[in-house]
Amino acid sequence: MGVNLRSRNRSELRACSQTPITRMLNVTIKAWLDEPPVGNGNALFPTVHGGRMSPDAVQYLLAKYVLKASKHCSSLRSKRISPHVLRHSAAMELLDAGVDSTVISLWLGHESTRSTQPYLHAHLAIKEAALAKIDPYNGQSPGRFRAGDKLLAFLDKL
């Protein structure tokens, strides 16, 4: 199952399949969608009045629950966690699972696949895999480059 995270109401969420979600989250969202809607029923995560949550409300709730979680996990106290950090973490998890960076870029709604390049630079396992594919350094200097006769003849003609 997948969802469109930009969706603004429950009916759109049921119809979309753009962003992959875990099985556990799938079960949780299905249970949530079976709950009676609050207010006019359009908001997936409604406010107490049934309206759509503002970005500030999302950040407030995240900060509130990070603070609560930090009482049990002290390493959270020194971290700055935001919706953007969670988005980045999800992208890194997808990359770690072997999902192609182009696909991740599309799922995140990036305008260009170049936007996903920072994830590749930050992913140590990809660097290690690339290094494992090359011949190990044998300790000898490759020496000075010596152009062959063909190359010298070509350059002379220029």
What does this structure look like?
- This protein has about 160 residues and is mainly alpha-helical.
- The chain contains 8 helices and 2 strands, in the order βαβααααααα.
- It has helices at about 10-15, 25-35, 55-70, 85-95, 100-110, 115-120, 125-130, 150-155, and strands spanning about 1-5, 20.
- It has a two-stranded antiparallel ribbon with strand order 1-2.
Q: Can you tell me the residue ranges where pLDDT is under 50 for at least 5 consecutive residues?
A: 1-18
Oligomer, anyone?
Answer: single chain
Span from first to last CA? 61 Å
Sheet bearing the most strands, described?
A: 2 strands, antiparallel
Task: State the helical fraction.
Answer: 40-55%
Mean pLDDT: 77
Q: So how many helices?
A: 8
The radius of gyration computed from the alpha-carbon positions, rounded to a whole number of angstroms, is: 25 Å
Give the ordered list of helices and strands: EHEHHHHHHH
Q: Give me the secondary-structure category.
A: mainly alpha
- Overall strand count: 2
What is the overall shape?
elongated
Beta-strand share of residues: under 5%
The largest sheet has its strands arranged as: 1-2
Ordered list of secondary-structure elements with their pairings:
Blueprint: E1 2-3, H1 10-15, E2 19-20, H2 23-34, H3 55-70, H4 83-96, H5 101-108, H6 117-122, H7 124-132, H8 149-157
Antiparallel strand pairs: 1-2
